[in-house]
Amino acid sequence: MKKFLVSLSLVMMLLLFAVSAHAIDVIIDGVKVDFTASSGAPFIENGRTLVPLRASMEALGAEVTWDDAQRCALVKKGPTTVVCYIDEACIYRNGTKINNDAAATIRDSRTYLPIRVVAEALDATVSWDGNVVISTSAAGNLIYSIENSGLHVSNIWKAWEKALAAKNSGNYQSAIDQFITLAPDFLAKHDSNSDAMFYKHLGECYSALGKNEEASACFKREAYYWSLASKEQETIDATRRATLINSSVQMYAKTYNDTYKPRKYFGEMYEPENGLYIGAYAEGDRAVHDPWSMNKFYMNEFPKLVGRDMSAYLLYMPSTTPLSHYQSHINMAIQKDKIIQLAVEPVNFFDIQPNDPTYIKLAQDMENSSAKFFLRFASEMNDNSCPWYTTNYNLYIEKFRIVADIFHTYAPSVPVVWSPNFYPANNIHLYYPGDAYVDYVGISSYMNHQPETDPLGQGVDRNRWSEQLDTIVGLYGHKKPIIISEGGASYIDYRTWADITPFASSQLYDFYTYLPIKYPQVKAVFIFDQDRNADSGCYRFSLSNNTQYLDAYKKGTQSEQYLATADAKAKLPQYYELGTNASVEPKVVEISSFIKTPANDTSYVVYNIYGTDVATSYGIPYSVNIDFAPYSKTTVPLKAMAFNASGVKVAEKTYYVKVD
Question: What domains sit in the chain, N to C, each tagged with a CATH number?
Fold first, then answer.
């Protein structure tokens, strides 16, 4: 993935160790990090060791970016995003606050961050033996060790042919050894296309041996090189393969205590302090709405269909349509105190000019309506099927900013939502208009059956809808409230028209169950309740036409986190992600887990402390109640072990959790 923020070549981080005055090395899984003049080298100041951020974190297999507007560094590895704000004595791991006794600071135009707490947030362990010693999982720094092995071959292409021959004959370990030996010389040519193919072959060898974590690391690096070569589809394909075959365990604690509050409140108009708005696009479902009569109106009938009230509804409107066209909808929303997300689809988008009278009139009408609105404007712009799609990213940004300025001037009570499509994910950041022009970041998030993407070649769709928000939350969740502008899981295969109701229903239930647990940054979600046919195939999202799919939605939306009214002050419990150095209260705490395996085959989860099983749970979100009172003022090894239906362990994770 292209680095889209300013260079961090001089970014540094503060290591919390008292040290002696000799040269300091950073050693990751036995490999010494090669610091250069451009990256900076470790040095000691006032008893603290300063270590370059980019070189160290990339050696851990992470990506590092810098957000100048928010004055923070972002470190991303797999499903984990760590945000470090300047002058805050803490970091945020996927939204969970982890306190630290030193703040990130800027001195001499360089940023310094605490390496220990960041490395541990990425599931590494850090120790001191005169040098900084970091240990990760088997594939933690695989890429760094390959590219910095110091090995050389006399004839690159002869070695390349030998590696390919070993791979083609099924001698995968021999092929891996050959590829790694030639890697430094091969990659030194800086041919992005060839470098991408190198990692594709290497990843396929690891995958054939069942070493999915190593294969995932290679496919991720393949995607990086494809992005350097501006190969969009290849980048998407490699990123998907890297994601689908990885395993991970994430544990979450439930709390009513604001001390542990993971949810960031930005103070935007209508933003809920706790919980999230639950909404729907239901105007197109004839079972709940008659467009020619108020006798069957979706704001009355949809809650009956799904067995619960909604706090918000979605409407689509071309920019040339007057707001009065939806007057009956607006009146009903005011009467019922519901929020309307108005998705304005611009006509002649690229002809928009400053002080455009069409948008001034729309802004004034919305402001004067007395209704609560979100304005979603020119959405899904990153999808090439969109009428306002362009690779002239600055042109899109220019036009969006014009309309955002109009609404901020003439409709200050109407927050502006910038909302890309979930696919493709690698170009989303290129269209971002800037913090001053965006109040909420949205996303269109859909799940479609794609067994052809199986990196293991078994024709199984290994995608997980409940992971799809990692990109948008990782990019913007630290600085903007997030909404899922629309979404659904099609229960008809969009190409073959085969009935895949069990697949879609399982994805829908999984998504809504984990949404308030995994993503405290999300403040609203809208289900798309309408069938549609498009050039790309057949899609079926209607809740009223599929009982199993409807039941999955009903079951998945039972959480008290889903707000029935537009109440921004609801007092609710929250969930926060655990990790090494995260804390829990010394009492009975509800713990849940999100388990990712290549086969998505978790049947039950066993929780263990100090080698003793303390609880077992069957079925998502694998919630249990654990009494931490006996461990007060200590740090305990909390382990979650996932098993499939045959009793085979498929994933596990141990976190060293502080008990306050």
Answer: 12-136 (3.30.457.10), 146-246 (1.25.40.10), 273-563 (3.20.20.80), 574-659 (2.60.40.10)
